[in-house]
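User: Quick one: structure for sequence A, then sequence B.

Assistant: Sequence A:
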Amino acid sequence: MPQITIDYSHPVEDAFDVDGFTRALHEGVVEIAAAKPEACKTMIRYDNLSAYGYDDRADARHALVQVTIGLLPGRTEEIKARLTEATLELLRKYIAPQDGITLHASAEVRELDASYRKFDE
């Protein structure tokens, strides 16, 4: 915990400082949600097959970025909202604007289900 997933699409890959964003996000999760740095685990997934509305995918005028943060239960709604807003602000900082590209970014903080288990070997 926390379990973080960053999904992002073409054509944002060259404008997205993924390493800088991930480091800053981990720092934010530690500060806002009282997580331990070593507990922050992030899976980063690039997708070049995303679609937006009825647009032709070949036009590549839209980029999608979705960040999901899974936390163990116990954080208040205020903390989760602060973390979501901080995540969106970091995306604005670590993704450079691109002419002709509309960036669609979203973030969600959710509680891990009671069935959540893990192991480290």
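Sequence B:
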Amino acid sequence: MCVIGGECGAQEFELTQVVPNVMIVLDRSGSMEGDVQDSDKNRWEVAKDAINKLVTSFNEEIRFGLVTYSACVGNGCSAGTIVVPIAEFNGGPIQQFLADKGNGYLCDSGDPETSTGNTLKALVGEPQLQDPTRANAVLLITDGDESGECQDTTNGAAAAAELFAQAISVRTYAVGFADGILGSLAEIATSGGTMTPYNANNPASLELALDAIAGAVVSCTFELDFVPEDPNEIYVFFEDMVPGIANDPQNGWTYDPNTNTISFHGTACESLKSGGVVDVDVVFGCDVPIPG
């Protein structure tokens, strides 16, 4: 019989968080030199500051990469380029790349450069965002609607829909760093599977938006240190409370034998993200938590 403190051959799993991939897609069009409320810095400078804080705060919990757009080549409308590939603990390289990119880095050619759709389209099939072992997402930061001249072959909403429809789905989060562009960004967010765009018009609101998005994408999936002989003998407990958390795809947990991972959902996931739960026991072979 399994009782607390008893010997029933139970084994406790060690958990390793499966960290998601997030590609930051940052607008570098000339309008990013515009003024920002409550700041003596321009939009580009404030955006760089907010990204620096984001990648510092979530450096261990998210694998970041960086795209800037457009590529500022040809007659405008070029897709952006990956300037920092996705990697673990990537806050430093992203900060280093942005450090010396002043106003001279902005595309102020006079050509249409807000190539949002072309840039998102270029990420369809991108290997860095086609990792089957983890969640994959795009975080778009722009200060305006995409240029009409850049929509001959696609647009932001259509490209976001393509990203989301892939076999390995990529969600698109959209942040408008200016007033009056939520309509088009709402279409991108809806098509990209995240539904609601974020509006920011000063440093504080931009930081809050990025923090909220990062909090939403932080993983509630964990890899187990050994493969259970029988998944039906997995039991999960928060704070040693009995009965444990239900095997439930809505507000409990599920096990994926293909990746040997356990994922938490709904209220269970939110409890982990909020810090309301700090002691998680995943036990094989015994329906009570293991003491200690």
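Residues 220-284 form one domain. The helical segments are 43-57, 91-99, 116-122, 156-165, 182-191, 203-217, 266-274.

User: Thanks, that's what I needed.
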